[in-house]
Amino acid sequence: MSAALTTRARAKVNLSLKVLGRRADGYHELESLVAFAGVGDELTLEPGLELGLSIGGPLGGGLEADERNLVLRAARALADEAGPLRWGRFHLVKRLPVASGIGGGSADAAGALRLLARLNGIARGEPALLRAAARVGADVPVCLDSRARVMAGIGERLGEPLHLPPLFAVLVNPGVPVETAAVFRALGLQPALPAVHEGQAKPSLRAQRSNPEAAALDAPLDCFAEPVLGLAEGKTRVLAMTRSSVGAAPGPTTGLIAALAESGNDLEAPARRVAPVLGEVLAVLAALPGCRLARMSGSGATCFALFDDCRASAAAAKALQKSRPGWWVKPTVLR
Ligand SMILES: C[C@@](CO)(OP(=O)(O)O)[C@H](O)COP(=O)(O)OP(=O)(O)OC[C@H]1O[C@@H](n2ccc(N)nc2=O)[C@H](O)[C@@H]1O
Ligand SMILES: Nc1ncnc2c1ncn2[C@@H]1O[C@H](COP(=O)(O)OP(=O)(O)O)[C@@H](O)[C@H]1O
């Protein structure tokens, strides 16, 4: 019997998130600069004949270890894509809040795929692995190797890994689970009509928008155009951002934060309608001494604050743990 295999399922943080439009199937086209935190869940695979899952950890309480769990869904998806697998029993130590915009479940699914790939000698770039990831959830592909990059499409188009300067952050969750689908619904974009004939006039995204917030979104691209957003374009913009940050005084971290301040998260406003406590979280973070940027990750409700150095982020986390004992507060470095 082989020894147990272990992996870390790191929290994903959407440093910026732009919604470009809604596809005919209802999913939304995004462009997001994603980074990963030092904090995460832990996943172990004990090789054996049966596929199984047990869950522990401080935040594992409300999570069922049944076939709906993303760990088992990922295992089944890989078996569908790659054929019969050697498998075993997973144990998940849940440290990330559930349904919180930092992709804990997606990271667990990606971790399960990595462990099964190791056990079965499946290479990291194997198409079956990537297909299985995309089948399980929009955020799973980017969590496969958990490196900072631009993610586009609905999450299946990934830019090259980026070497961002370290971002000293505090992650905060007020303990209110937020369903991703509810936030996208609250954005209020109508699905695009499917394109029937080549060359046919294509309805603009602007025309689809059914509320003022959505209308305020800047949509330079038509969702029928392929690619919706050349990943190269997104990548160039991020590289320009990090490059300009390198030259900016006093350091790359500060420069990157300044560049990020010019972007935003298009899901923040609809998420605030779904979970009004977000307004309070963001205000509290913005008022922390040394906070350079306060923003929501993904569809919420986890928010992050960025600081110039780790002393400032550690002090802010300490103050927050004291003043808001009911909130989940984690100082971490995003990379
Ligand atoms: C918004 C993001 C940003 O990174 O993060 P989270 O807030 O979930 O962490 C992701 O796109 C979420 O990815 P993930 O959580 O894997 O989404 P899925 O399970 O595939 O989809 C959940 C639901 O969200 C909606 N959805 C999701 C992704 C997307 N690009 N467009 C959508 O409209 C769909 O209604 C879908 O049924
Ligand atoms: N292993 C898992 N960890 C977290 N959530 C899971 C897991 N398996 C299934 N889920 C379900 O997936 C949904 C998304 O969870 P999660 O990835 O934590 O949030 P988000 O997509 O907002 O980042 C939740 O509704 C949760 O019930």
Automatic annotation (TrEMBL):
Signal peptide: none annotated. The active site is at residues 12, 139. Pathway: Isoprenoid biosynthesis; isopentenyl diphosphate biosynthesis via DXP pathway; isopentenyl diphosphate from 1-deoxy-D-xylulose 5-phosphate: step 3/6. The keyword rRNA-binding does not apply. GO terms for molecular function: 4-(cytidine 5'-diphospho)-2-C-methyl-D-erythritol kinase activity; ATP binding. InterPro entries: GHMP_kinase_C_dom, GHMP_kinase_C_sf, GHMP_kinase_N_dom, IspE, Ribosomal_Su5_D2-typ_SF, Ribsml_uS5_D2-typ_fold_subgr. ATP binds at residues 97-107. GO terms for biological process: isopentenyl diphosphate biosynthetic process, methylerythritol 4-phosphate pathway; terpenoid biosynthetic process. Transmembrane segments: none annotated. Keywords: ATP-binding, Isoprene biosynthesis, Kinase, Nucleotide-binding, Transferase. Its EC number is 2.7.1.148. It catalyses: 4-CDP-2-C-methyl-D-erythritol + ATP = 4-CDP-2-C-methyl-D-erythritol 2-phosphate + ADP + H(+). It holds the Pfam family GHMP_kinases_C. Residues 258-322 form the GHMP kinase C-terminal domain. Coiled coil: none annotated. Residues 69-144 form the GHMP kinase N-terminal domain. Catalyzes the phosphorylation of the position 2 hydroxy group of 4-diphosphocytidyl-2C-methyl-D-erythritol. PANTHER family: 4-DIPHOSPHOCYTIDYL-2-C-METHYL-D-ERYTHRITOL KINASE, CHLOROPLASTIC. HAMAP family: IspE. Belongs to the GHMP kinase family. IspE subfamily. This is 4-diphosphocytidyl-2-C-methyl-D-erythritol kinase. It comes from Bosea vaviloviae. The gene is ispE.
